[in-house]
Inverse folding.
């Protein structure tokens, strides 16, 4: 099984994305799969999708589907990768590797408990002390299998991002490669899977760098050439803390649900640790694929700035054609989650305001409060906005607007000039005069251009809302 792998050359580039189906799809995973995918596309190589599903207690089928869905949303459909392959299907190869390491004297069984190790070393912080190295124990219940690390020398990791990190072998403890029940741990299973699948380049997050010397020793012990290592910078929050799913917004699904565009997310994630030539950040995907080089990735931690991502998304939204924008908004407008009755949605009315709304939102979900006044029977009133807008002069002004709007030409410019004149008679500039009208009609002090909005809303509904505001004020 392993002999055939030794013929893999750099011209047969194969990378892999190997997530565990144990939760939502982390933006760090999204960045990793994009780096792998881009490298495969550049070289004409292959990206393998491997689901590391051996943690049966935490794995769930829906998380596997979530991985596939997240990748497809990013643009990485089934035709873009080999798989999905499942780590659990490679148990025979894991067992074969264990047997080979045992036969070569590179592994041994150990029955030490953690408490025993601490008692011998006198410290909770020291690693395993090699107590069972020469006890020649056989397989038995509760006996883990440890890899025997070299006593001297060093292990050099040739990393395209980090140079040549060097690890003193005597400081690498004899680490466990199989549990007491015989099942392989991540370190061994990961290596064997990469060997069997012919992986030539391992591109992953910096947090795996401490595993690299151990895994490279396993590659060498199994008689294979180690892969090209690439450890991309970790993603951190505004406090420069590593992103945590318990503390930070990190689930790709949440950003998608909020209305981030896949193109914007893809573009932004590629810039976390890498920058294109020139003073550019937003650029076509084909340009990113053409320019990206692993050697140019900065090893420093990369700040996952949600505010900047939001700005990127706003730019991507504004770059859509109006027709594409209308289509992109549909999940928020016609889904069951929309706050209006399904039959109240008017596609023509939305199309009429779409271009106005497109320049005013940064994520697609913001379209709902922007246009809900068109489709709700009554507007959702922001009480703070009501209090601010409904000053002492509001009742008189609204009464005059009602009278004028009942008969004037129903066209945005006429509606504007009419209100402007009513305000001027009372010493109010248009901004002050339109505030109570806007809140009465839309429920808010900010939103789409007022007069275009009420033209589309129509005379009957506009006047009815103005009268309802008057009734409330009285």
């Amino acid at each position: 099984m392993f002999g055939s792998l030794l013929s893999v050359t750099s011209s047969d580039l194969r990378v892999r994305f190997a997530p565990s189906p144990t939760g939502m799809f982390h933006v760090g995973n999204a960045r990793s799969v994009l780096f792998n995918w881009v490298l495969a596309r550049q070289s004409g190589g292959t990206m393998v999708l491997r689901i590391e599903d051996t943690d049966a207690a935490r794995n769930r089928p829906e998380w596997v589907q979530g991985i596939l869905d997240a990748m497809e949303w990013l643009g990485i459909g089934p035709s873009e990768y080999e798989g999905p392959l499942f780590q659990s299907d490679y148990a025979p190869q894991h067992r074969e590797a264990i047997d080979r390491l045992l036969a070569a004297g590179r592994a041994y069984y150990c029955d030490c408990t953690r408490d025993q190790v601490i008692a011998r070393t006198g410290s909770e912080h020291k690693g395993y002390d090699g107590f069972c190295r020469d006890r020649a124990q056989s397989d038995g219940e509760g006996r883990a299998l440890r890899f025997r690390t070299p006593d001297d020398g060093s292990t050099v990791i040739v990393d395209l991002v980090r140079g040549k990190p060097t690890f003193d072998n005597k400081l690498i403890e004899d680490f466990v490669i199989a549990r007491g029940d015989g099942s392989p741990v991540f370190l061994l299973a990961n290596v064997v899977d990469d060997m069997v699948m012919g992986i030539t380049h391992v591109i992953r997050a910096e947090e795996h760098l401490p595993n690299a010397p151990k895994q490279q020793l396993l590659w060498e012990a199994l008689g294979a050439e180690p892969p090209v290592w690439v450890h991309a910078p970790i993603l951190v929050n505004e406090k420069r803390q590593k992103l945590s799913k318990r503390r930070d917004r990190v689930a790709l699904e949440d950003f998608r649900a909020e209305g981030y565009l896949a193109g914007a997310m893809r573009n932004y994630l590629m810039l976390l640790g890498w920058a294109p030539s020139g003073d550019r950040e937003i650029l076509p995907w084909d340009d990113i694929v053409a320019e990206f080089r692993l050697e140019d990735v900065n090893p420093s931690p990369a700040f996952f700035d949600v505010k900047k991502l939001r700005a990127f998304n706003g730019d991507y939204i504004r770059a859509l054609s109006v027709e594409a924008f209308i289509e992109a908004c549909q999940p928020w407008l016609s889904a069951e989650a929309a706050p209006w009755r399904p039959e109240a949605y008017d596609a023509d009315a939305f199309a009429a305001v779409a271009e106005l709304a497109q320049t005013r939102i940064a994520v697609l979900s913001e379209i709902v409060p922007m246009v809900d006044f068109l489709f709700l029977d009554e507007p959702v009133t922001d009480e703070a906005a009501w209090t601010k807008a409904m000053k002492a002069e509001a009742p008189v002004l609204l009464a005059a607007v009602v009278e004028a709007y009942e008969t004037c030409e129903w066209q945005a410019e006429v509606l504007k000039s009419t209100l402007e004149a009513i305000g001027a008679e009372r010493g109010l500039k248009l901004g002050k005069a339109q505030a109570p009208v806007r809140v009465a009609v839309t429920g808010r002090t900010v939103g789409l251009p007022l007069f275009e909005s009420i033209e589309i809303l129509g005379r009957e509904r506009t006047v009815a809302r103005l009268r309802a505001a008057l009734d409330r004020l009285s």
